[in-house]
Amino acid sequence: MKRIILMVVKLIFRLPYYIGGIWWHGKKKNYNPEVAYAFVKKVTKAANKAGRVRIESHGLENIPKESGFIFFPNHQGLFDVLVFLESCPVPFAFVIKKEASNVILLKQVIAALRSFVMDREDIRQSLEVINQVAEEVKKGRNFLIFPEGTRSRMGNRLLPFKGGTFKSAVKAKCPIVPCALIDSFKPFDENSIAPVTVKLVYLPPIYYEEYSSLKTPAIAEMVKQRIEAAIRENTVGC
């Protein structure tokens, strides 16, 4: 909470411009995903800098050159999306649970990036979102989905990955990009404004040919293991 207050205080005079701009992109009829993403990215960088958060990215070369893929990272908190927005050079949308979709500013970002809200209590709506994401990915859009379904609340330790979260990738037959978030819980969960570094590791993509014969629970476990290995490698001695 302290860091969020710090961000707001430092950006107080620019907030109307930032919030208004994100809202405007969310409402535009002649929507341009690259322009909208660039603006949201600009706001994110300003917010992270104001909050004294440094993003350290690794493996950017692993992001597929051709769009139409899905990022699957571990989930540590609300700050996770901000890490990707500053780090990722290509536009993406994300899938977020209904419970978090009404957070101020995040709600506007969801609209600006044409992201999807999933109601996990509504099976039919959840299936619709899975199918919508698959169709959008086939058209060349990129998405971010958290396979744990909720943040772990255990620091850099992971919860089990849900096989169902990989159904969109299977339907789209698209590359799966495992991503390891490290210390992303610290900016918003720790009651401190001390400078903090968050790491994001983009792992080599898993192409459809590699996972086509697997059931979604097996895909989930494979991705989880790769992320856990990356976290171990990047936290040794920390």
What descriptive keywords fit this protein?
globular; seven-stranded mixed sheet; alpha/beta; 238 residues; Glycerol-3-phosphate (1)-acyltransferase; 7 strands
Task: Walk me through this protein's architecture.
This protein is α/β, with parallel strands linked by helices and 238 residues long. The protein has a single domain (2-235), classed as Glycerol-3-phosphate (1)-acyltransferase. Helices cover 45% and strands 14% of the residues. A seven-stranded mixed sheet has the order 1-7-6-2-5-3-4, sandwiched between helices. Helix 2 (15-27) crosses helix 5. The longest helix is centred in the last third of the chain and has 20 residues, at 216-235. The protein is globular and about 55 Å long. The chain starts with a helix and ends with a helix. The mean pLDDT is 94.
Q: What's this entry about, in short?
A:
With 238 residues, this protein is α/β, with parallel strands linked by helices. It has helices spanning 2-10, 15-27, 33-50, 79-87, 106-112, 123-138, 167-172, 186-189, 208-211, 216-235, and strands at 53-58, 70-73, 93-97, 116-118, 143-144, 176-182, 196-202.
Distance between the termini: 25 Å
User: What structural class do the secondary elements suggest?
Assistant: alpha/beta
Radius of gyration: 17 Å
User: Which fold does the CATH topology refer to?
Assistant: Glycerol-3-phosphate (1)-acyltransferase
Percent helix: 40-55%
**CATH level-4 homologous superfamily:** Glycerol-3-phosphate (1)-acyltransferase
Number of domains: 1
Secondary-structure element string: HHHEEHEHEHEHEHEHH
Number of strands: 7
CATH architecture: 3-Layer(aba) Sandwich
